[in-house]
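Please check the following.

. . .
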Amino acid sequence: MTRLRDLGVSPGLLPAGLYNAITDVPGVRVGHVTLIAGEGALRPGQGPVRTGVTAILPHADNLFEEKVIAAVYTFNGYGKATGFEQVRELGVLETPILLTNTLNVGLVSDAVITCMVRENPAIGVTTGTINPVVGECNDGFLNDIQGRHVRAEHVQASIADATAGPVLEGNVGAGTGTACCGFKGGIGTASRTVESGYTVGALVQSNFGARRHLMILGVPVGQHFHDRLLPGSAPALKTEPGPGSIMMILATDAPLTARQLHRLAKRAIFGLARTGSVGTNGSGDFVIAFSTANRRLHTPREPVSTVTIIPDEQGIAINDLFLAAIEAVEEAILNSLIAAETLTGRDGHVLYAIPHQELADLLRGSPASSTGK
C-alpha cells in the first residue's frame, strides 16, 4: 500500500502520529469488510459487487454505556446519513460510526441496532432507544448499488474485527467502489500531534471532485491529467461518476466540548478545499468529530464531577487543534487517492489509480518536497 509520504514529500507543519492514522488517538479502532464479486454487465440485485462497510469505534468498551462527546457538521447536505440530529441535540455518540454506500444506509443502520441491543438488552425495555450513526457515498459507477450487498453479518464483522494500529486504505471497506477527482478513491487516514500532547486523527471516504479541480500540495495535478486515465474511458462507455460526496471523521483525545468539536469539524472543510473541492451541487460533504476524553456515562453512578476542558481563551492550544484537523483531513484524502488501485466494475466501468511515479515527479518541485518522514 502506497501513501503520500512514500512519494518523498512531508506535508504540513505539524508532525504525524506513529501510524499517521486515526488510530493514533488512543482507543480508536477501525474495521473494514470489502465485497468484490462478479464481472461484466450490470444485473440489478445480483452484481457485479464493488462495495463494503467501514466501522470506526471511539473506544473498546461499551459505547452505549460510555458515550463520547461528539458533533457533526454538514457543509453540503446532499446525502443520506442517519443519526446526525440526535448528535447535534445531545452532543454525544453512543454507537460505532459506520460508513457504506448510499442505498445500504438503512440495512447498515438496522444491523448496528441489532449489535447494540445484543450488547445492551435494556435498550428500549428499561432504558431509552439507540441512535445509530451511518454515513455514505454513492459507489454506483462500479457497484450494483441496487443490490444492497452489505448485509448484517458484514456490519457485525466490521465492528468485531476493528483494530488499533495501521489502517488499510484505498479500495477497502466503504471505499471499495468510490472515486476521487476522476481517479480511484476510497478510504484514507492521517493524524497530527500538537505541542500540548494531544492528537487529532482523520479518516475519510472519498468520492468527490472533478479532475480539473484536483490539487495536491498546491500543484494543479488534475490539469496535468485532464485528458488521460479518465473514468470509464473504454470506447463504449457513455457514463461517468456523478458529483460524488465525502465523509470525514475526526477523532481527538483533547478534552473538548461538543461546541468546540463542532468548531473543529468545520475546519475539516479547509482540508477538503486544499485538495480542490468546490462543494459541487449534488455533493454531500459531512464531518463527524468526537473526543475520547470525558466519557459520558449512560447511567451516572454519582453526580458528574468537574471535567477538564481546553478553554477557548487558550487560543494557541485551540488553534493548533484546528490546524491539526485541516492537515490530517487533507493528507487523509490524498492517502485515499494514492493508496487506491485501478478497479473495473459493472458494465466494464473503470476507475484508474493515479500514477505514482508521474505524481512524484510533479510534486518534486513543490514546497512540500523533502525526504519525508
